[in-house]
Amino acid sequence: MSKPLVIIGAGGHAKVLMDILSRQGRKVIAYAAPEQATYNTMFTQLSWLRRDKEILKYSTDEIQLVNAIGSMPYQLLRSKLFDMFKQHGYEFASIVCESALISPSVKLGEGVQILSRAVINADTTIAANCIINTGTIIEHDCQIGRHNHCAPSATLCGGVTTADFVHVGTGANIIEQLSIGEGSIIGAGTTITQHVEKNTIVYSAKNHLKKRE
To answer: H or E element: which one contains 16?
Structure first.
């Protein structure tokens, strides 16, 4: 039997996860956020924890945590909270949307979140605390590092390897057998055709805007 859940965060990503958890009948008992989420009935029915450290009043055997902090480049709050609560002995629940297609041979790390219509194919491994966002495709034999975010509709072809803290932007494409170094950012809509070293930002040419006459 699954343990009750406490959600960390109450923003946009948290709302998406709450939708999935509600459909799956998972029991959420509280959320931690600096401001009360009065705008959403899914949160108003839960206990509100004003500070993250209030989670410590729950026993590690009593609950699982859901890391509902969104992931953006250069923002490390999500990974810091994950590591902090792991040091306290807490376990993070993995969340897999019912519309995602995942091969039985895929290995998912702790706290991984697979959102709507994502596809993850054979013998891929996804390490802890990753977000595989809406419509992302990760092909066979990929190795995805810790604290990665594959944004909506990103495509990683077969045999791609990403190190920790990689952000793959919306609609980006990574060609097969390539590696992406730690801390790198692949900009939205970019197609990667060569290996990317660590701490590298890769983006496509800026859009040119012209007013209608």
So the answer is: helix 12-23
The strands making up 125-126's β-sheet, listed across from edge to edge, are: 107-108, 125-126, 143-144, 161-162, 179-180
Exposed/middle/buried for residue 34 (C-beta within 10 Å: 0-12, 13-18, 19+): exposed
pLDDT digits (tens, 9 = 90+) for 149-159: 999 999 999 99
Q: Tell me which DSSP letter residue 51 carries.
A: S
- The 3-state DSSP class for residue 23 equals helix
Model confidence pTM above 0.90: yes
CATH topology for 94-202 is: UDP N-Acetylglucosamine Acyltransferase; domain 1 (2.160.10)
pLDDT at 2: 85
Tokens of 191: 């197609």
List the chain residues with pLDDT less than 70.
Answer: 1, 205-213
Give 124's contacts (C-beta < 8 A, 6+ positions apart): 103, 105, 106, 107, 138, 139, 140, 141, 142, 143, 144
Instruction: Give me the CATH topology for the region 5-93.
Output: Rossmann fold (3.40.50)
CA 139 to chain centre: 17
Coil, strand or helix: which one is 141?
A: coil
Residues 124-152 as b/e (b if ≥16 CB within 10 A, e otherwise) read bbbbbbbbbbbbbbbbbbbbbbbbbbbbb
